Amino acid sequence: MSAGAAPVRVGIAGLGRAGWHLHARTLATLPADYRVVAVHDPVADRMAEAVAEFGCTSYVDYAGLAAAADVDVVVVTSPSATHAELAVQALEHGKHVVVEKPFATSLAEADAMIAAAQRAGRILFASQNQRYSLLFRTVRDVVSSGKLGKLVEVKTHWHAFRRRWDWQTIPELGGGTLNNDGSHAVDHVLTLAGAGGPPEVFCRMRATPLSAGGAEDHVKIVLAWDDLVADIELTNACAYPQPKWLVLGENGTLVAEGDTVRWRYLDPAALPPRTASAAPAEGRAYDTEELPWVEEEASVAGDAYADSHVRMYTELAPALRGTAPVPIPLAEIRRQLAVLDQCRPALTETPIAEDVR
């Protein structure tokens, strides 16, 4: 980033929960890098609030924002089913584009978006902010350190017990747990797995009466490579949440629960050699030994959800100015969408409750 560079001028399409709290408010905390200059939302009061807070221009029609000459990058935070259309339109007007998760609701949509970015020669960035959470960064760093050895299995649980009745429970708008949480959880697991080939995908999903709109709210995904298995569980029907992460390696284990990440590992070079024997066990006893464990832990207390957006936008700014590579390559996002696409046929037909029980 060059010294004294002007702030990147941002137009935000969608001023709902994510657009307002996570994007607009985050960008306002980074005035040296960003300035909100334009907004669009179907709710007039939301646009008036943005105009009052940011001194920006409001557009009743999205086309006006996408074409605005004073907008460098468009942030798409509208309902999920509209992401592809709005992103492509902005790219065709020569804008860089940031897309709130889910990046797209199908691999075909993602490919159309990527093709539009390539034609335009502009940056298309997926808002995978959870890659920037301290919890995930700690898990990733421990795995990358090699302390756990070669990974055997990765488990991640996104557990809650809650009722929902907002637009994210409506399939036609791109709602559902697969899009809402799966876009983060699958991205995390693929990041930990590294650059291996595509996994075998198993998925089962169902819609429970806890979500009023009929979209799935319980998702089980199992990804399998030749020597690694990942178990992903996303649900609104767990009243006893399990640890967010359990990572098993040949040399140790990591567990992340609440604000604490703990890992226990050993150095295999410090172990005495053992040779398998078919002889009767002395005293009919099981093999036992004291293992020289090393135990470490880290606290991520105080890391707010919005903090991950600050880190993400801070890292993205140099790329938007052309002085650094894009932090998250589109090939990695496409890999995520390919997994999610294989899960979609797993949604079984279940009755839609008229009200949330």
TrEMBL record:
The cross-references to Pfam families, in alphabetical order and at most eight, read: GFO_IDH_MocA, GFO_IDH_MocA_C3
Using the record's annotation, list all stretches that form the Gfo/Idh/MocA-like oxidoreductase N-terminal domain. Answer: 8-125
Domain GFO/IDH/MocA-like oxidoreductase, chain residue ranges per copy: 136-254
Endpoints of the signal sequence: none
The entry's protein name is: Gfo/Idh/MocA family oxidoreductase
Upper classification of the source organism reads: Bacteria, Bacillati, Actinomycetota, Actinomycetes, Pseudonocardiales
